Amino acid sequence: MNPIKTVEMHTGGEPLRIITEGVPLPDGLTLAEKRGYLRDEADHYRRFLMFEPRGHRDMYGALLVPADTDDADFGVIFMHSEGYGFMCGHAIIALGRYAVDHGIVEPINGVAHVTLQCPSGLIKATVDIHDGHSTAVRFESAPSFAFKTDQFVNTAPYGPVELDIGFGGVFYGILDAASIGLNISSTPVQDFIAAANILKNAISKEIEIIHPVEPELDYLYGVIFTDGQTGAGPKPSKNICVFADGQLDRSPTGSGNAARLAIMAAKGGLDENQDYHFESITGSVFKATVKSHTTVDRYKGVTVEVSGRAHYSGTAEFTVEDDDMLGSGFLLR
Question: What domains can be seen in the chain, in order of their start residue?
């Protein structure tokens, strides 16, 4: 295996390993086909970069690839310890800054507009430049909607649990943590991970997740626990997101924020002129605002502008020695 080069960033504490060189892909493939090729034929690259000893259970990655369309500045394939994602808000925020800082997009009058081709579609990000440095990054979510509201699922430890299911680029189950006896500020994170796994299994068994347009999105990506507040005004609403195979999001979860506002809109509790603030387990905050109203097949929905900041943590060149029995990657947790 040739050396693989990366740029390391984080958004609100959630890691993003941007893969810039060293992962070969066949010529002539669309972005969807490249993603399928990696998943089916070359998944060892994901395991090499996401698993230990180079990564960990909660690592997140973004492979940069040429876009299929002239409407996008570049394409991206998301990956994590379980597999490959369709949409990732914290990654969009980091990639927006990366695109400006590495000359992919040039700013004009203190603002740069970056268009990314993601597996979920085109995502437009806006990067603010202050004193020559990129600062906040804003992006408009995929059309987001409430799939199910006020639903009950049965669990052994908690009994019937009421929750909502919203789409913000992927599907999330969303509930007030206190409804199952968890405290968003003091309960150990391991308890949230365990609860999320129980709820995810219950939802998957009892509720058929169907995206009305894109069959590849017919699955529950994660569970978001909230503090029961809306995030309206200056005081943020705290939430904890557990996604994929028990990964804990350190950021406030951009696609999850979009899903939360879509559910609020469906329930009639949304102030369209209001900025909403959401805080993660690390204390980092995203701002979310309704950008437009839309429909996704039979569902009424919204697009949401999510804003946050990302920072660099380093660069790396990863290699493996021929006699390294663990060099291909492993996970202990």
Answer: 4-140+312-318 (3.10.310.10), 144-308 (3.10.310.10)
